[in-house]
Amino acid sequence: MNKASPNWLNFLSISFLVLWLVLACVPFLWTFWGSFKVQADFFSKQDWQNAIFGIRTLVETGSSFTTDGYEGAWIQEGFWKAALNTAIVTLSVVAISLTLGTLGGYALARSGFRYAFWILIAALIFRAMPHITLVSGYLLPFFELGLWGHLSTTIIVLVAINQPFTLWMLHSFFLSIPKDLDESAMVDGCTRFQAFRHVIIPVMWPGVITTGLFSFLLAYNDFAITALLLTEENQTMVPKIASFLGSTQEQGNVMFAVAAVVSATAPLFVLVMFFQRQIVSGLTAGAVKG
Amino acid sequence: MPHHTFFKFIWPSALAMLVFIALPIISITIQSFYIDHEQVLVTVENCGPFGCKEVTKVDVEATRALSEQKPLGKFNGFGTYTNRNHLAFSHISEAWNAAPNLGYFIGEVLNLPFYKALSFTLTYTFIVTPCVIILGFCIALCVNRLPSIFKGPTIFVSLLPMIITPLIGSLVLFWMIDAEGIIGSFLKIIFDDPSLSLKASPTLTWIMLIVYGIWHHAPFAFVVFYAGLQTVPKDTLESAMIDGASKWEQTQYVVVPHLMPLVVFISLIQLMDNFRVFEPIVGFNAQASATSLSWLIYNDFRSGDGAMLFGSAAATSILTIIGVSILLTPIIVRTWQSSKPAVRG
Question: Are residues A43 and A180 in the same domain?
Fold first, then answer.
């Protein structure tokens, strides 16, 4: 702690931070804990403490912890199918948008012509379009062409929506790789593609991993596009959870949705745990460099 | 890089953006001028044991044939833009003429779906954005003072609200705020009102959504500011200290000016993201009290009888895009002016 600053300032800053950390993580801990209880405990009419100690859960299932919610969601309601779809969609989106993005971002970083700047500005404007306004442009043509409802259509749409951001980020990353590196390869007789392939690709992984994380988050977290572009059997996790809410409220199976929410959150936790440094550097790359 | 090499590198990315971002914008512009075909009605004579009578009914075959022939619907000009669900000019002028006072007029206007959504969207955007910047800045200052072993775990926990799926994040909070959830029960005890429900009151719903928005977006501002704080010039800080500046003065005169460019960046991203607020409204099931422009579009596709109102959704989309442009023009012009020299190299 900074010795030069007065005690009251240290105290104030620590207590503010503790308050923020509590706000940031308690909702997740609470929901995680509650997902192993029955509905009568998680939404207790008698006493909120029931959700902690699982009084009704003990009465109804014979133990203070129950995995009924998870069984109901994953097996009975077929959440495993949605999880599989999410895996297909997110992995494809990340792979394709990184491939297109590295090529485009590299070209933008090395072009030196005025139009590269205009393409970046256009990408920034595209980035500002609310996703759902674009979806309303897709629906009718997709119905007419018979493209609606397939996972592959959604993947391509998500890739395209991802492009502006990917381009910006990789563009600023490639700017930080010295020009001399690929230019000296070209002096030695490489073509642009060969220079890209043999000189740039080996050193670009830190930037690509960071950008890939954000592409992953965009595809994984999307609701507007997946909810409107996929048929019911092709649904990914997030729209599936939304459809639980509609159907389970009457059946009294809110706990299915709670279990599904916890299941869908788990991969994100793992992601932050392993890639915290990359996420932080990625968020700041855009601000500091561009 | 020569033009043709540049083109070879950029075309897949450019094509994806043209087909799936630029074309849809054109597509909604066209769609917004059309509305669904009216159903084709036929009059048939229905004869029963008690005589004949003429019945008008929908000719399903002919209606389907017509919509297959012209899937866009029929041309409506600016009709969709001016109807009750969008700009509602005639309703506004009626309300203006009938209104005894300004309050009544504003109340009437805010009852119209488009203006109701617009008022929430703007309120949300303009409250969440500055709050996120201030809260993020405070967290960054505090984290920056921590001993380095605590920094990692603190940043980990602080990132959680941001990386969470918006729909899931809002559901998690919604379940806690539920009258039978933990926060809901506490509020009932604090205010000693067993019938208190955040969901039932429009004002409380708005506050709830705004609090969620700040919670969700603050980590972004925090991370950006935190990285900015690492680059504050040490010399300037030290000379300010030697000149007798207090902690507060150092922050005010050295740190804040240094971070100003980041404020512009964060506001740009936040204005874009907050203007499209949508998932929290679905997650909090708040559409009775608060709607947003994005939610209106979604709702046009989810209306009860399964019919999709393409024209209406397209008109709202166009109005939303106009809104985004108005909102972002000042910042983009500024960025453009300041980034001009940087791009030439």
Answer: no
B26 occurs within a structural domain? no
pLDDT tens for A232-254 read 888 899 998 888 876 655 556 78
Cross-chain CB nearest to A132 (options B14, B182, B294): B294
Domain that holds residue B65: 61-111
- Its ipTM equals 0.88
A216 in the same domain as A85: yes
CB contact under 8 A, B14 and A119: yes
Question: Of the candidates A104, A134, A140, which has its C-beta nearest B13's C-beta?
Answer: A104
Which positions in chain B touch A273 (Cβ < 8 Å)?
156
Give A10→chain B minimum CA distance, Å.
9
The pLDDT value given to residue B305? 61
The model's pTM is 0.88
Q: Could you tell me if A85 and A92 are in contact, meaning their C-beta atoms sit under 8 angstroms apart?
A: no
Task: Flag whether B45 is in a domain.
Answer: no
Note whether B87 contacts A: Cβ–Cβ < 8 A.
no
Do residues B215 and B258 share a domain? yes
pLDDT of residue B343: 41
Flag whether residue B180 sits within 8 Å of chain A, measured between CB atoms.
yes
Nearest CA to CA, how far is A62 from chain B (Å)?
A: 23
User: Which one of B111, B140, B171 terminates a domain?
Assistant: B111
Task: Please report whether residue B145 resides in a domain.
Answer: yes
B294–A133 C-beta distance less than 8 A: yes
The distance of Cα B73 from the centroid of its chain, to the nearest Å, equals 29
Q: How far apart are CA A89 and CA A83, in angstroms?
A: 10
The secondary structure of B3-19, three-state, reads: HHHHHHHHHHHHHHHHH
Same domain, B159 and B283: yes
| Residues A153 and A92 both lie in one domain | yes
Domain total in chain A: 2
Q: What is the predicted pLDDT for the residue at A289?
A: 43
Centroid of chain to Cα A28:
17
B276 contact residues in A (CB cutoff 8 A): 130-132
Closest residue, chain B, to A131 (C-alpha): B276
Q: Would you state the pLDDT for residue A249?
A: 55
Whether A1 maps to a domain, the answer reads no
Q: Both A169 and A120 in a single domain?
A: yes
Residues A60 and A102 placed together within one structural domain of the fold: no
Say if residue B69's pLDDT is above 80: no
Residue in chain A closest to B68 (alpha carbons) equals A144
B3, B6, B13: best mutation site toward chain A, by most A Cβ within 10 Å? B13
Please judge whether A228 and B298 are an interchain contact, meaning their C-beta atoms are less than 8 angstroms apart: yes
Q: Kindly state whether residues B207 and B336 are assigned to the same domain.
A: yes
Tens of pLDDT, residue by residue over A25-47, are: 999 999 999 888 888 888 877 77
Range of the structural domain that residue A269 is part of: 80-289
Residue B21, domain member (yes or no): no
Same domain flag for A116 and A46? no
